[in-house]
Structures are given as C-alpha cells and as structure tokens.
C-alpha cells in the first residue's frame, strides 16, 4: 500500500553562478512498512529530494513543480500544496527526519530530555515537563544506558553515538508514519553504525514505520533496505528491489557504484572507481547526464536524447535497455 | 580562594532559596548549578573582572539606595539659612565633599545623581536592546524583503549622530513632555519615584525623559545589526534545520533556540553600553540638555563647576571621578564576561580547580 507518491519533483537553486538544477523530474513511491534506500554520490540530489517532501527547502532553493501525495487514514493530501501551518503539524509528528550530523542537530543549550519533551509538546500540546518521563522511556527504547540521568545531560556531555540515538529518539517521539534518515550513520563509527541500523529495524517493527534511508554506503543498503533508488545528477537512473539491484544492476552508473565498493553478494578482486566527477548541475550534460562518464556510451544517441525511466519492478533510465 | 568560597556560598544560598519553593529542583538541575558555579569561578579568575564587578555593582547599589541615604535632600538650599555655606570646600562646616553655589551638600547631590544615571542607563538598555534584538531576529531569520526593509531603516537610524538627534529632541520634546506630565499626575509621580525626586519637581524631569527617548531611538540599530549577523550564522546550523523538520513554530525557533544561542555576545555588548549610555547622558547634561535645576546629575554638576573651575574644583573632580569609575567598571566587567561566557574557557577552569 502506497503511503507516499512523489511525482515529477523538480527543485532548482537560484545562485549567483546560475540556476542549479539540483533535482529534476523525480518520481518514486514509498510503501507502508518498507525501507526505501536512496543512494548516489555527493551532490546527486538525495538530500534535496527528501527535504523537498515536506518543503524544507530554504531560499535560494525553490520547488519548481511536482506533487507529493501523502496518504493517511483514507485521505490524500498534496504536501507541496498544503498551507505552511498544516505542514508544520505533519513535520515531526507524521513525517520525521534524522539528520546526518548528530553533534549539531541538538541545541547545545538544552538537555536531551528537554528537547525530546519539546518535540512532543510541540505536536500534542501542553507543557514540556509533563513529557519528561516519556522522554526517558524513549531514550531507553533507543538503548541509551542509564536513561534517567542521560535525559538530564547536555549534548556536549554525550558521545556521538548517544547523540545520534537521542536524535532518533526525538524523531520517533511522536510515532511518525514515515521516518526520513539522511545518512544517519555517516558521523558515527562502524560498531555504532551496526547498532543504529539494528535499532532502526527494531523500531520499524515496533512502530510500523516506513523509512526512507539516504546513504552512499552500499553495504548498509544490502543489509537494511527493501528497495533501492539510485540517483545521479539530480535524476533517478535506476529503481529496483534490493536483491535484484545487487544481482543484476542494469544502469552503467549502478554497475560502477557496485564495482567501486566491496559487493557483499559477489566479491571481486579489485575495486574499480568510476572515472570523472559528478556533472555541474548549472549546465548539466545534454541527453543522459551520465554519458560523459559512461563506458557503454552509444554515440549520437546518449548525448542527444534523454532516456526515460522504464520498467515495472526494476526500472532503469538507459538507452542500453530500450 | 576567598572569592570562590563566596561564590560557593552565594550558590548554596540560592539553591536553598529555590528548594524552599520547589522541593526537588536541585536534584533535577544539578548540571545547571554546576555551570553557574563554573561561571562564577571563571569570573573570579580575572582580577579586572572582579574589580569591574565591584565597581558596577557599587554603582547600582548607590543608584538604588543613594537618594534614601543622602544626608540632605537635593532641594535643601542651605545657603538661604546659612550664607557661609556658599561653595564650601570639602571638609569644612561638616560637609564632606563641600557644597555647591546654592549651598547644597555635594555628597547628597552625587547620590541623587547616581540614581539619575542609573535610571537613564537601565531604561535605555531595557527598552532599546529588546527592540533591536526583535528586529534583528526578524530580519535575520526571514531574510529577503523583510530583511531588506528592516535593515535599510536601521541604516537610516545608524546614520543619525546620537548626539545631534539627542540635541534636536532635547530642544523640541521637553515642552510636550512637560504638558503630558501635568496632564497625567499618575505618570508624573511614577517618574518622580523612579528618579528619586519629590513629586512637585516631576515637571523638571521633562528634559531627562526626552534624553532617554532620544537615546532609545539611537540605541536599537546597532543591536538590530549585530543580532541579524549572528542569526544569519546561527540559522544555518543543523539544530535549527532539525527544529524546523520537527515542526516547531517559527516563533519558537527564533525565541527558544536561536536567541539563547546568541545571547552571550549581546549581554557583553549591553554591559559595555551601560558605560556608553552613562557617558552620553552625562555629556548631554553637561551641555545643559539633561537635568535642569533643581534636579542634578553628575554631568550638570560638572557644568556648574566648570565655569568656576580652579576655585570650586570639588564640583568637577568628584562627579568626574564618579563618571570615570562607573564607565571603567562596566567596561572591565564586559571584558571579563566575554571570557566567562565562553564554555571552553569555563572547562579549562574546571580542570584547574
């Protein structure tokens, strides 16, 4: 059952250097209870796409077109057309975010428990104080040792892993239907990474959330995701269930990505980097945006015409698969 | 160190007082009390800061209790009964700091003058600074056209020289304020109380009121600009974005998250400004635009002594020293506060004690 339908989302940034076409014509669905991973290099538009879902794009960025249909209790709302005040009620309560850097996602001046309580009070009304004991329970739920005293600690008194878990506790405090995790494990070390992923899995089971998981770590994708969306240069180039993607990557960019990291399903001897860098999105290459780096380029076609995203369960935007 | 003991005692007293009202407060706020303790310790580590604290606290205390403890009133013209009291040098006829041309006790006049300086600086800071902070927050947070509009108005006000605007207002406003004071006896007696003068002299407060009106008008723009700059930096931080993503209201993000995080530089700036307002107000009074007889402040005392300078040196020296020490005190304190508000500096101290 679809809970979120993103259609033709286009986000531009109006900078002094020119118009950055950060996200163009992106469409994907999110189903109830699934983990959707969005992967791609830095600057491929992953974060912008997910922030645009609840219109968290700040000037000079602007959502040019598209729709985000959110389904709840039988009604459908377009988040991009909702009044700001309505949308504010959805943010943090029905759609919650976990950001990349836990050390700066907490306000340094308030205790962790207070900030979790504040999130609950903002959406359920009432005083922050009355939610403090619930905040302790949430901290226990995200496996923070000694939650009673930790809830009275300031962010600088906690380790990176504990801060990230506190941020997750804040995000899940109102039992959101959709959790958007933007590289939640990038800033923490590997053992903590595993714990946090495990935690996400548990919470997903307990709360029945859908998760959009942004990462550039293919290992985490294989471990955690149900479906994968691969983005390149502000567009979706491939979308497939996770086993399908790892066994049969179709788009040359996805193949390149998988060759550049240790593939957990079929280990190779040498890692191969993708030559070149991500295109400048002020003047993106014509046709397929990957063609300047593509090893299988079809001359006369890829530079001119843009490939459509085609397919049923396994979608790919590439002229190699007509 | 004795000062650290004093700080511990002060905190202990405070905690006791709060526990009287709210039983479990200390257990819940232990971390906060520790932070306060470190803040006080950090202040103790800076000798100039301690001197500044004593000078400025002394000024506040004198300003508050001065008119109450003054041996004579500012409107006791002793000269009328005892002609020998005309311009008595310090120490003679039992007048510790001498008398002025009306035979008034200079010590008492200084104590009354302290109240006038204190009220002017407190009112100017208390009204001007929040106005500046509010406009700065709005401009910085919303950006775009709102920012442009607020900041251009700020620029216009910044372009006014403070002294010239104060002169202009002091020349035009007092008449209207005088009428207002006569029409509104309640307001007049309130003003008389806070300035520590008797109610029948309230109409003579008009020039003083116009001075701090002028000072408020010229004071907010610098704060609006400073706050806007800091908000621009602060609003890009992830916790603000996170707060937005958690669905907090804009007002809450501005007042509960951004403002507290930029508060310490503002407090430091306001501390410095106590000195600046004092100096400016004394300057205006010296020019004859502030306190009008029989009300005095330090500036008008210097003005009175200026024309009789080498002979009546005590009329210039004592108020001059008072102005100097007050300004010095606030500046030293402001300097020390900058260190104290730096959490890293506090941590260094934690490891030394």
Count of domains of chain B:
1
CATH architecture of the largest domain in chain A: 3-Layer(aba) Sandwich
Shape of chain B: globular
Biggest interface pair, counts:
A-B, 33 and 23 residues
Question: Mean pLDDT of chain B, rounded to whole units?
Answer: 83
The radius of gyration over CA of chain A amounts to 20 Å
Rg of chain B to the nearest angstrom? 23 Å
The main sheet of chain A orders its strands as 6-7-8-3-9-10-11
- How many separate domains make up the residues of chain A? 2
Order of helices and strands of chain B: HHHHHHHHHHHHHH
Strand-residue fraction of chain B? under 5%
Largest sheet of chain A: 7 strands, mixed
Categorize the overall geometry of chain A: globular
Give me the CATH superfamily of the largest domain in chain A.
Answer: P-loop containing nucleotide triphosphate hydrolases
CATH topology name of chain B, in short, is MetI-like fold
Derived structural class of chain B: mainly alpha
């Amino acid at each position: 059952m679809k809970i979120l339908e993103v259609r033709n989302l286009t986000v531009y940034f109006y900078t002094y250097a020119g118009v950055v076409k950060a996200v163009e014509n992106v469409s994907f669905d999110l189903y109830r209870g699934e983990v959707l991973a969005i992967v791609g290099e830095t600057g491929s538009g992953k974060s912008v796409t997910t922030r645009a879902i609840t219109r968290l794009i700040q000037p000079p960025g602007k959502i040019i077109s598209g729709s985000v249909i959110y389904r709840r209790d039988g009604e459908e709302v377009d988040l991009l057309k909702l009044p700001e005040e309505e949308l504010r009620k959805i943010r943090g309560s029905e759609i919650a975010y976990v950001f990349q850097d836990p050390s700066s996602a907490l306000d340094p001046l308030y205790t962790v428990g207070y900030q979790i309580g504040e999130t609950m009070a903002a959406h359920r009304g009432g005083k922050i104080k009355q939610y403090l004991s619930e905040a302790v329970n949430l901290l226990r739920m995200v496996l923070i040792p000694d939650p009673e005293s930790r809830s009275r600690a300031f962010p600088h008194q906690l380790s990176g892993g504990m801060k990230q878990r506190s941020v997750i506790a804040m995000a899940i405090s109102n039992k959101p239907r959709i959790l958007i995790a933007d590289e939640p494990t990038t800033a923490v070390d590997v053992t903590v990474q595993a714990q946090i992923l495990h935690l996400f899995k548990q919470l997903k089971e307990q709360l029945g959330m859908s998760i959009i998981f942004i990462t550039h770590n293919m290992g985490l994708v294989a471990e955690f995701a149900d479906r994968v969306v691969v983005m390149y240069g502000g567009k979706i180039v491939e979308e497939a269930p996770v086993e399908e993607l790892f066994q049969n990557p179709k788009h040359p960019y996805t193949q390149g990505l998988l060759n550049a990291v240790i593939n957990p399903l079929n280990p190779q001897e040498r890692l191969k980097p993708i030559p070149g860098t991500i295109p400048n999105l002020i003047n993106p290459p014509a046709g397929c945006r990957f063609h300047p780096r593509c090893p299988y380029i079809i001359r006369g076609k890829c530079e001119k015409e843009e490939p459509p995203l085609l397919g049923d369960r396994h979608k790919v935007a590439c002229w190699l698969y007509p | 160190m004795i000062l650290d003991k004093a700080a511990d005692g002060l905190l202990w007293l405070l905690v006791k007082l709060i526990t009287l009202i709210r039983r479990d407060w200390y257990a819940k706020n232990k971390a906060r009390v520790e932070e306060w303790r470190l803040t006080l310790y950090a202040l103790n580590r800076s000798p100039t800061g301690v001197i500044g604290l004593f000078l400025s606290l002394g000024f506040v205390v004198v300003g508050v209790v001065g008119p109450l403890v003054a041996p004579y009133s500012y409107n006791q013209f002793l000269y009328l009964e005892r002609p020998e009291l005309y311009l008595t040098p310090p120490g003679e006829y039992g007048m510790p700091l001498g008398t002025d041309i009306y035979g008034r006790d200079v010590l008492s006049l200084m104590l009354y003058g302290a109240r006038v300086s204190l009220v002017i600086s407190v009112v100017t800071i208390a009204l001007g600074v929040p106005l500046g902070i509010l406009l700065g927050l709005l401009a910085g947070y919303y950006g775009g056209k709102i920012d442009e509009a607020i900041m251009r108005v700020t620029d216009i006000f910044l372009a006014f020289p403070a002294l010239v605007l104060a002169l202009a207002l002091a020349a035009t406003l007092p008449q209207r304020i005088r009428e207002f004071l006569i029409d509104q006896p309640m307001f007049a007696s309130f003003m008389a109380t806070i300035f520590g003068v008797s109610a029948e002299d309230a109409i003579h407060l008009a020039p003083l009121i116009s001075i701090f009106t002028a000072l408020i008008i010229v004071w907010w723009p610098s704060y609006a600009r400073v706050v806007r700059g800091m908000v621009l930096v602060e609003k890009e931080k992830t916790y603000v974005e996170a707060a937005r993503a958690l669905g907090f209201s804009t007002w809450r993000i501005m007042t509960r998250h951004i403002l507290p995080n930029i508060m310490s530089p503002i407090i430091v700036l306001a501390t410095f400004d106590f000195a600046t307002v004092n100096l400016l107000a004394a300057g205006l009074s010296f020019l004859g635009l502030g306190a009008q007889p029989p009300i005095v402040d330090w500036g008008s005392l210097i003005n009175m002594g200026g024309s009789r300078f080498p002979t009546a040196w005590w009329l210039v020296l004592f108020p001059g020293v008072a102005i100097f020490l007050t300004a010095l005190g606030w500046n030293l304190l402001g300097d020390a506060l900058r260190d104290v508000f730096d959490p890293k500096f506090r941590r260094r101290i934690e490891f030394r004690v």
